[in-house]
Amino acid sequence: VEAYEAECELLIKELLENNLVNAVSLVKELDASEACTLKRNADECLSSACALTWRVACAAISSEAKEQGQAAALTSGTESAVHASQVTTKLDTLEQVLPASSETFVSLIDFHVQSEFGMRFVVKQLLLLACECVEFADATSRMLGEVVFKTLASERENENLFKSKVVDTDREEDYECGLFCQGSNGKWESALMKFGVKVFGSSQSCMHQLISLVMNRMGGSAEHGAEGVAPEDLVQGCMLLNTCFETCSTLGCVDLEIVPQLAEHVMGACVTHEAVAVRRESIKLCGMLMLHSNYSSESLYNVFITALRKDHYQVKTEAAKFFVDLAHLNGPKYPQHKFSSFKTIAGCPMEMLKQCLSSSDCDLLKEVGDGDDKKEFRKVVVEGFLKLMTNHSKYSRENAWTEGEQCDIFTKLVFLNFDKECGAYAPMQQCISVFFDVYSMLHAHTYQIVSASIVLTVKEAVRRELKPRVFGQLVRFLTYLVQRVPAQDKDEVVGIQQKVATSLICEMKMQASEETVWEEEEEQMEQIIPALLKVLLKLDVQQFNQDAVKIMQVLLSELPEGNKLFGTKEFQSASDTFSVGDAAEGEVAPDVQKQASLVYDQYLAMKSQQDQAPEEEDAPEEEEPAEEVEKENEEEAAADTKAPVEHKSPVRRRRALRSRNVVS
Asked: Would you put residue 252 in left (φ > 0), alpha (ψ -120 to 50) or beta?
C-alpha cells in the first residue's frame, strides 16, 4: 500500500464513484472493526491500508455532503428536503465514526508520531484526514495541534516517526511517503503544511510559525549564510517553506522585515553548495520570497542569472520558473524593466529563455546533464511562453510584446510543434497541442496573430530547407489554424481574413514580379507561392466585402500569366473564387485599378520597413586597431597557405543568375 499509494487511492475512488461500494457503509464497517477503528485505545497503531481507506472514504463523504448542501440551497420544496436529509445523514455518519473531539483526534496523531515503529505513512493519512473532517475550534485542540506541527517541522532524525521499517535485504525501501530530503516526492511536507494551515487558521499564520522553526533548523548566520548546515536540514527547511508559499492563496503572506534575513541565510547555498538538491530548493525559496514580497537585490538577481546560465538543469528549471512566473504576473517585459537598474546585468532573462524555443543547441541547453532534467527544463520554458501568449491581452502596453514580437514567438512555436525532440517528450508535446487547439479561437486578437504569422512561417520554413513531407504537413497545419475562427467578433474576424487574403496575394505578386533573381531564390519561390495559394483557398471569401474582393481580383489578374506557378488548378480555383462584377469579364474600373495599385505599394513599403528594421537595431561594430587587423590578415594568409581550401557542394546553393524574361 505504501509503495503504491496513488494506485490504491484511485482504486478506492473508482469503487465509490461507480457505486460498487457505499462510502457510508464502508466507514461504519471500519468503525466496527477493532483493528481499524479510530476510537481505539493507545496500545496499537493503524495499518497503512486502514489509514488510507479512512482518508479516501471520509473525504468522499465530506465532498458528497457539500454537493448535497449546495443542491439543497439551489432547490425548493420536496427536492430541497431530500438533499438536506442526505446531508444530515452523511454528517451524522462522520460524527459517529470519527473520534469524539478534535483533541482526541490530535492525540491519536501524536500517538502514531511517538510510536517506536516508522508510522510516517499512517501519520500522513491522519494529517490529511484532519484537514478534511476535523475542526480546531477550541483552544486545547489548537494547542495540541501546534505541538504536533512544531514537532514534525523541527525534527528530522531523532523522532521515531522517521525511522525506517525493517525491509527485505533484496528490496530497497520506497520513499513515497518519506522525507523529501531522503529522496521522496514532497507529499509528506505537503500534508504537514495543510495540517499547519488548518491548525493555525491561515497560511500567513502558519508561515510566521514556520519561518522561525526553519531559521533555527538552518542555523548559520547572516554573515555565513547556510554554510556548515547539514544538507538534509537545508533541503527540508526550504521544502517546508516552499510548500507553505504554494498554499498561500494571495501574495504577500510573509512579513517584509524577515525577508532579507531569510534570503541571506539561503542565498549563499544557491550557487556554492555542492548538492544539487540544496541549490534547487534554495533558489526556489529565493524565487518565492521575491514573488511574495517586493524584495529584490542585485546580488540575488545575479544568483538567478548564474543558475540559469551555468547550473544543473534541475536548478536551471527553478530559475526559469521564477522569471516565467514574474512575467505571468506582470507581463513578458516586466522582468527586464524591473531589473534594468542593475548595471552589472547584461541581457534580458526572457530573451535568454526565448532561445530555447528555436533551437536545442542554444546556450542554455549546452550543459551536459540528465536527459529527463534537460527535457523538463525546456518544457517549463515552452509552457511558460504558451501561457504568456494565451493571456497576453491582460498585460499593460508597457510590459506587453508588440504584435511583431508575438508573431515571431508564434512562428517559433509552430516549428517547435514539428520538432522531433519535443515530440519525443510527451508532456511538452501535450502542452503545445492544447495551445494550438484553442489559441486562434480565443478572440479576434489571437486570430490576428495567427493570420499575420502565415507568410512569416512559410518563408522561414523555406529558409530552413525542410523536407518536402514536413513542409507539406506544416502548410496543412497553417490552413487548419486559419479556419479555426473565434465565435465572437465575427465582423472583426472577417476584416482580419480580408487583410490576410490581401497580404497573401501581394506577397505572391512581389515574389513573382522581380525581373531577375538568383536561381536558389526562384526555387524558394516555387515553394512559397503554392503554399500561400493553399492557405488563400481556405478563407471564407463569401463573407468578404465586395469592394475588397474586386481589389484582390485585380491583384490576382496582374500576376504573370507565363509563369508556370500560376497555371495550376489551385490558382485557377483562386481566380474563380475572387471573380466578381466587371473584373470577372476582364473590365476593370479605373478607380478599382488605382486602389489595387495603392494597396500593393503600401504592402511593399511595409515589407521594406520590416527588412530595414533588423539592420537599424544592430549595434555598430567597433573598428579594430590597425595593428590587430594586420596581424589577423597575416594569420589568415598563413592559414590559407597551410590548409587546402574545402569547396562546398554547389548542389544546394547555386548562384546562377536567371532572368524571368528568358525561356529556359
From this structure: left
CA-atom Rg of the chain in angstroms: 33
User: What is the C-alpha separation between 196 and 226, in angstroms, rounded?
Assistant: 25
Query: How far is 195 from 76, CA to CA, in rounded Å?
Result: 37
- Give the residue among 543, 569, 571, 547 at the shortest CA–CA distance from 559: 571
Give the orientation angle of helix 203-218 with respect to helix 139-154, to 10 degrees: 40
Q: Comparing C-alpha atoms, which of 553, 544, 548 is closest to residue 490?
A: 544
Using left for φ > 0, alpha for ψ between -120 and 50, and beta otherwise, residue 183 falls in left
Ordered DSSP codes for 318-374: HHHHHHHHHHHHH-TTHHHHHTTT-TT--S-HHHHHHHHHH-TTSGGG-S---HHHH
Neighbours of 228 (CB within 10 A): 10
**Residue 160 CB partners (closer than 8 Å, separation 6+):** 113, 114, 115, 116, 117, 118
DSSP letter for 585, please. G
Q: What is the band of 613 on the pLDDT scale with cuts at 50, 70, 90?
A: low
Report the candidate in 405, 408, 414 with the shortest Cα–Cα distance to residue 475: 414
DSSP per-residue string spanning 376-430: HHHHHHHHHHHHHHHTGGGS-TTTSPPHHHHHHHHHHHHHHHT-HHHHHSHHHHH
- Ordered DSSP codes for 479-523: HHHHH---SS-HHHHHHHHHHHHHHHHHHHHHHHH-SEEEHHHHH
pLDDT in tens, 33-53: 888 888 876 567 888 899 999
> Could you give the CA distance from residue 481 to residue 497 in angstroms, rounded to a whole number?
12
**Terminal Cα distance for the chain, rounded:** 77
- The set of residues, in sequence order, having a beta carbon less than 8 Å from that of 2 and lying 6+ positions away, is 48, 121, 174, 176, 177
Closest CA to 325 of 344, 306, 313, 338: 338
In the chain, the amino acid numbered 485 is V
442: left (phi over 0), alpha (psi -120 to 50) or beta: alpha
Quickly tell me which residue has 473532517 as its cell. Answer: 133
Show Cβ contacts of residue 174 under 8 Å, excluding neighbours closer than 6 positions: 2, 3
Tell me how far apart the alpha carbons of residues 57 and 26 are, in angstroms, rounded to a whole number: 7
Instruction: Compute the half-sphere exposure of residue 596: CA atoms within 13 Å on the CB side of its CA.
Output: 22
Q: What confidence tens digit (pLDDT) does each residue in 84-143 have? A: 898 898 888 888 888 888 888 888 888 887 776 657 788 889 999 998 888 888 888 888
Which residues is 516 bridged to in the sheet?
A: 659
Angle subtended at Cα 350 by Cα 346 and Cα 354, rounded to the nearest 5 degrees = 115
With 0.90 as the threshold, say if the pTM is over it.
no
